[in-house]
Amino acid sequence: MPEPQPVATATAAADAGVQPDWQPDILGDGYVQHTLDLGVDPDGEGSVAAVLVRRETRPDEAVHGAVLYVHGFSDYFFQTELADFAAARGLAFYALDLRRCGRARRPGQTGHYVSDLAFYDEELERSLAIVSAAHPGLPIVLAAHSTGGLVLPLWLDRRRAAGRVAPVAGLVLNSPWFDLQGSSAQRGPLTQLMRVLAKVTPKTPLKLPPSTTYGDSLHVSAHGEWEFDLDLKPLTGFPVTVGWLNAIRRGHAQLHHGLDIGVPSLVLRSDRTHFARAWSERADRADTVLDVAQIARWAGCLGNETTVVPIPGARHDVLLSESDARELAYATIGDWLDQRHPAPSAEGKIADAPSESPASEDEATAVAAS
Questions:
Q1: Is residue 1 part of a domain?
Q2: Is the separation of the CB atoms in 120 and 114 below 8 Å?
Q3: What is residue 367's predicted lDDT score, i.e. its pLDDT?
Q4: Measured at the alpha carbon of residue 310, what is the angle toward residues 369 and 341, in degrees to the nearest 5?
Q5: Does residue 170 surpass a pLDDT of 90?
Q6: CATH at 359
Q7: N or C terminus: fewer CB in 10 A for the chain?
Q8: Interatomic CA distance for residues 255 and 269, integer angstroms
C-alpha cells in the first residue's frame, strides 16, 4: 500500500487569516477552545470536528514561542500543569483534541477511531496555522504523548518531504508508541490479521481483557492524584477497534523504515515496564502500558537530532508520575529547551518545575494485552 500523501494546506492557510471563535473551555477560567469543523467524515460517521484549546496568556507573561500538544489514545487534554510549565518559560500553550477524541467526539461516533493516521493531518495543519498566526515569526515546539507520539512524527515527516518545516522548531515526545507490545511472534500474525479484518469489519472491537491498572494509578478515585473526566478518559480506556489498530500498525511500519522529521526531538520514557491486570505500588513507578525497550529501540528512526532520556520511576505518562520523577522530567525538558530555544532574557536559566495542578493521559490499556 502506498504511503499517504500530505493533505492540501488551503484550509490551513484560510484558518491563519481568520480570527478563531474562542469559547469558554471545560477546564474553566484561563482556558478557551475553538472548534475546527472538518466536514464530512472520511470514515463514514457523519461530520467530524477537532477542538483546539488555548491557555490564555496572562498580562505578566512574556511570550517568545509556543507549544502545541497532542494527546494519546483514550485521552484528551487537561494537563494544566504542563500548560503552566510552558507559560512559565515564555511559551504560549495550545492543545488539540483530535477528531472523535475528548471534547471533539460527537454522539454516535466511535471513540478515537481513525482508519488512516494521515487523516489527522488536516486538524494538525489547521491548528498549527492558527498558532503561527497568533505568534508570527516565533518558534513552535510540538509535544505529544503515547499514540500522539506516533501521529506527530509521521505528520512531520510528510511536512518535511513537502518542504514545510517552519514554524515547527522542535518535538518533545512523552512515552511515544513506537511498536506493538509483545513478542515478534505475536506481533506479526496479529498485524496480518488486522490488515485482513480491517477491510471487512473495521469498527469491530477487539475482545481484549479489560484492565484499570493504569487508570487506577492516576485517578483520585483510586490510587492517583489526578482529576479527569471519566467519560472522556475511562479508567479501562475506549475499545480498541480492528481498523484503528491496523492504522497504527501501518504507522509503526512507516516509522520503522525511518523518518526525517526535520527538527530536533526529545524522547522521555520510564526506565521500566510493568504489565499487570491489577494495581499495585509497582504500577506507580513504571510504564504499565508500553514496553520501554521498544521506545528506546525505535527512537533513532525519527531522524535529525534525537535525545532519549529514561526517567527513573516514571509512569506511562511521564508528566503524571510521582513527584520526584515528574520534577526530573520537567527539568529535563527545561534543559533541552534552554539549549535549543532559550528565552531572550533567560540567559540559559532552567525554569523550576511546577508544583501543583491537575493533569493526566492514557494509552491503549487494552492493546497492552495483545
A1: no
A2: yes
A3: 40
A4: 120
A5: yes
A6: 3.40.50.1820
A7: N
A8: 18
